[in-house]
Amino acid sequence: MGGDGQLQHCDYAAEFIKFLKELEKEGPDTELLIVGDTFGFWELTLVRGVERLAHIIRAHQAIFDQLRATGARIKVTMMVGNHDYDLACDPTFVEKLQAYNIHLDPSLVLIRPVGDKRIWIEHGQQRDQFNSFPEYGNAYALPVGYFITETFVSGASRHSDFGRGDWLKDIRSVGTMQIPEWMLSNYFYREMSTVLRWVLLPFLLLAGVTMIAIIGEILRVAGIFDYNIIFHNPLMSRLGIIDNVLQVVIAINSVFLILFGIPALVVERDLMRTLHRFRLRTSHGVTPNLDSEAPYLKGAQEVFQEDDKVAVFIFGHTHSAFLRRLGPAGQVVINTGTWLKLLSRVPVRFGLLPSVYYPSYRLNYFRIEKENDQLVIDYVEIPKTPERELTWLQRLVILGNVPKSPEAIPARTIIDL
């Protein structure tokens, strides 16, 4: 929650309030743990100081009123993430949140005992090289990720109202590595002049056909294959004027590809060499994946090896919910996911059109408790369907091409104590 402009809107407010009301029925030994990144005020608002929290509370008063009511019946604990790092730097926040029965714990790691086993809980920013704080608790010791978010996301927060639609507010839902392509996609499908889009559309759609035509023409000129299947085939010969129009489009496309495509490839190759010199690209030409789950799985494995009493390793940060067995004794790793909108990249069916980012939600929670001599982990999803926000052109170019289903999570997982 948090931000300016459209980012103040909370898509899941009704579902979250209903969830909190249900928790009021639990006994006093129940604890709700919110594993960091509750707020996005540090880089997402022009308000400064402790007043930033009041700024968010005013925008989401119904949620905080319900947190106060729920927190009177059960314990509500809030951890600190990289997007609300200020919570770990100023003890005043502890008192401010306590007024709503929220116990702020700025520790990087929390441990909860269950029988003679332990649950390890962290947000996970310390395992992300771009968002790990060099001196945790120091408000001026900031990671690279802070400046990236401050530059891109804070601008989106303040200027989201100026777009054709409020798509810019969803920048929080896009993986770091996908932001440039996501911006290009929304520019083409939403912000580009309608006339310009329709002028470009046939050329972009026929780009693949154009490449085949160029290769066919090269083979014909070289005397290797004297037949261009694009223009000279029984079907095209019956199309008359359509055949001529198609030839004109492909001919223009061919000129553009030769005049601009080849120089663009040369520039891209030189750019990749530059990125490699700055260590932003590996020697194999692969850009580092900032959204990778590998550092967290490695961290969990290390925790399990160092302390065989840890049965569950919990983190958040990457927004991708999952539960996996890992470790010599069948320990469990949990990623809590996010209640933010999820945007999945879906490539178009044909042509060189930008990919489409398909919206969905995965509102969920994990419930962990001891039953007899077992640790039981229940996974619950709360249904939510996104509003119809894709344009008809976006739906058309991905027709039948749906995003990959998220990793399935078992409804119940049992660990013997």
H-E string: HEHHEHEEEHHHHHHHEEEEEEEHE
Rounded radius of gyration (Å)? 26 Å
Total strands: 13
Total domain count: 2
Overall shape: elongated
Give the uncertain stretches in residue-range form.
282-288
| Oligomeric state of the chains present here | single chain
- Sheet/helix structural class: alpha/beta
Helix content: 25-40%
- Count of alpha/pi helices: 12
Largest sheet properties: 5 strands, mixed
How do the strands of the widest beta sheet line up side by side? Answer: 4-5-6-8-7
Report the average pLDDT across residues.
81
* N- and C-termini, Cα separation: 37 Å
| Share of residues in strands | 15-25%
Describe this structure in words.
Helix 1 runs parallel beside helix 3 and helix 8 (207-221) crosses helix 10. The chain is built from twelve helices and 13 strands. It has helices at residues 13-23, 51-59, 61-71, 92-98, 144-159, 179-191, 194-205, 207-221, 234-237, 241-277, 294-306, 392-397, and strands spanning 31-34, 75-78, 102-104, 109-114, 117-122, 310-315, 322-325, 332-335, 342-346, 356-360, 363-371, 374-382, 412-416. It is of the alpha/beta class. The longest helix is centred in the middle third of the chain and has 37 residues, at 241-277. It is elongated, with a radius of gyration of 26 Å. It has two domains: 5-192 and 290-416, no CATH class; 206-277, no CATH class. One of its GO terms (molecular function) is UDP-2,3-diacylglucosamine hydrolase activity.
